[in-house]
TrEMBL record:
<feature type="domain" description="Trichome birefringence-like N-terminal">
    <location>
        <begin position="27"/>
        <end position="78"/>
    </location>
</feature>
<dbReference type="GO" id="GO:0016020">
    <property type="term" value="C:membrane"/>
</dbReference>
<dbReference type="InterPro" id="IPR029962">
    <property type="entry name" value="TBL"/>
</dbReference>
<protein>
    <submittedName>
        <fullName>Trichome birefringence-like family</fullName>
    </submittedName>
</protein>
<dbReference type="GO" id="GO:0016413">
    <property type="term" value="F:O-acetyltransferase activity"/>
</dbReference>
<dbReference type="Pfam" id="PF14416">
    <property type="entry name" value="PMR5N"/>
</dbReference>
<dbReference type="GO" id="GO:0005794">
    <property type="term" value="C:Golgi apparatus"/>
</dbReference>
<keyword id="KW-1133">Transmembrane helix</keyword>
<keyword id="KW-0812">Transmembrane</keyword>
<dbReference type="InterPro" id="IPR025846">
    <property type="entry name" value="TBL_N"/>
</dbReference>
<feature type="domain" description="Trichome birefringence-like C-terminal">
    <location>
        <begin position="81"/>
        <end position="335"/>
    </location>
</feature>
<dbReference type="Pfam" id="PF13839">
    <property type="entry name" value="PC-Esterase"/>
</dbReference>
<feature type="signal peptide">
    <location>
        <begin position="1"/>
        <end position="27"/>
    </location>
</feature>
<dbReference type="InterPro" id="IPR026057">
    <property type="entry name" value="TBL_C"/>
</dbReference>
<comment type="similarity">
    <text>Belongs to the PC-esterase family. TBL subfamily.</text>
</comment>
<keyword id="KW-0735">Signal-anchor</keyword>
<keyword id="KW-0732">Signal</keyword>
Length: 346
């Protein structure tokens, strides 16, 4: 009797665990986890990827360490499907993918091109992967909203998004914007910011960002048919210029060879993340956030430092070496697409 009761209990526990496990695997957050070393990485060797831009090719530019190539992102409570390039090509055969944004979009786009190129080798062509009928393109637009040359100089128009005309007719859109909203001095692109009829020299950058992003969100809500086009927002990519952010006084990303352990970042999230989340939450179109900020914050070792653009760029703690962190962004993009977490499957 006691024996049967015990068996009954273990069965009940088994069912309970299974329920908890299954439940968890559906509600899983792919974006909280840790980096673990994994010798099966990197996913590709840039010397076999003809599309790689010099500025991301850290090994070619002489970066002496290579530990940073061998990390895999491991969510805390579940696993995500491994990137299957064949499957990706099959799903997107005949379809058009577009990245829109700044040089971080360029970084992620190059990563995806190399990940796919490894699966199917093509003759180098101006339109990569054209032969398979899949097109993966990039439009560089730092702000989404319009930046226009007028008599007074360059005007950043927070309410105007004529740029959107170029984003029509795609099956998958991945947007990213933030870094250029912060730039000041010589690299600032505008002379004036326009809102309504009003021109101002400057304003709080987070406020400007929120207004510009809201204009973008309205464009998506009125121009994208979600049954045809899937839209993602590529989350804010962090920089590592200030070691105090991870409790390492007077350090930068230079000379870093290992990620941070654990799942949290001492400095917390940059404030722009809250703006993105608020704007996305207000949209009628469901635009999933590729929430890569924290996982990338843990990768102080992932930047080109002086091994981008042959060292011509100084200490780059903003972009990412390839192979490297943006490969994980694309692995997670793929995982969201195939698990259909909140998006209709393709
Ligand atoms: C990439 O390939 C090149 C040429 O075959 C080789 O020298 C290099 O070690 C490889 N890099 C990695 C990280 O495997
Ligand atoms: C992180 O963990 C690795 C492996 O467990 C260890 O070798 C390394 O020293 C740790 N780093 C820090 C900063 O604690
Ligand atoms: C989101 O909607 C709320 C409620 O309508 C509004 O108060 C808030 O300002 C909106 N935020 C943005 C970023 O549009
Ligand atoms: C799933 O989509 C709904 C709206 O369609 C949204 O409220 C919810 O936050 C989304 N969940 C995740 C995990 O993105």
């Amino acid at each position: 009797m006691g024996f049967l009761f015990k068996n009954f209990c273990s069965l009940a526990y088994a069912i309970l665990f299974q329920f908890l496990f299954l439940h968890k695997s559906y509600a899983c957050d792919f974006f909280s986890g840790t980096w673990v070393s994994d010798d099966t990485y990197p996913l590709y060797n840039t010397s076999n990827c003809p599309f790689i831009s010099e500025e991301f090719d850290c090994q070619k530019n002489g970066r002496p360490d290579n530990l940073y190539l061998k990390y895999r992102w491991k969510p805390n409570d579940c696993t995500f499907p491994r990137f299957d390039g064949q499957d990706f090509l099959r799903r997107y055969k005949g379809k058009k993918i577009l990245f829109v944004g700044d040089s971080l979009s360029f970084n992620q786009w190059q990563s995806l091109i190399c990940m796919l190129h490894k699966i199917k080798k093509y003759l180098m062509s101006l339109i990569p992967l054209q032969d398979y009928g899949i097109s993966v393109t990039l439009i560089r637009k730092q702000y989404f909203v319009d930046l226009v040359k007028e008599n007074v100089g360059m005007v950043l128009k927070l309410d105007s998004i004529e740029n959107g005309k170029e984003w029509i007719g795609y099956d998958l859109l991945i947007f990213n914007s933030w870094h250029w909203w912060t730039h000041k001095g010589k690299i600032q692109k505008w002379d004036y910011i326009q809102e309504g009829d009003k021109l101002v020299k400057d304003m709080d950058r987070l406020v400007a960002y929120k207004k510009g992003l809201t204009t973008w969100s309205k464009w998506v809500d009125s121009n994208v048919n979600p049954t045809i086009t899937k839209v993602f927002f590529q989350g804010i990519s962090p920089t590592h210029f200030n070691g105090e952010d991870w409790n390492e006084k007077s350090a930068t990303c230079e000379g870093q060879t290992q990620p941070l352990n654990g799942s949290t970042y001492p400095a917390g999230l940059p404030p722009a993340v809250a703006v993105v989340k608020e704007v996305l939450a207000n949209m009628t179109t469901h635009v999933p956030l590729l929430d890569i900020t924290t996982l990338s914050q843990l990768r102080k070792d992932g930047h080109p430092t002086s091994y981008g653009s042959d060292g011509k760029e100084g200490n780059d703690c903003s972009h990412w070496c390839l192979a490297g962190v943006p490969d994980t962004w694309n692995e997670l993009l793929y995982a969201l697409l195939v698990t259909g977490q909140n998006i209709t499957s393709i």
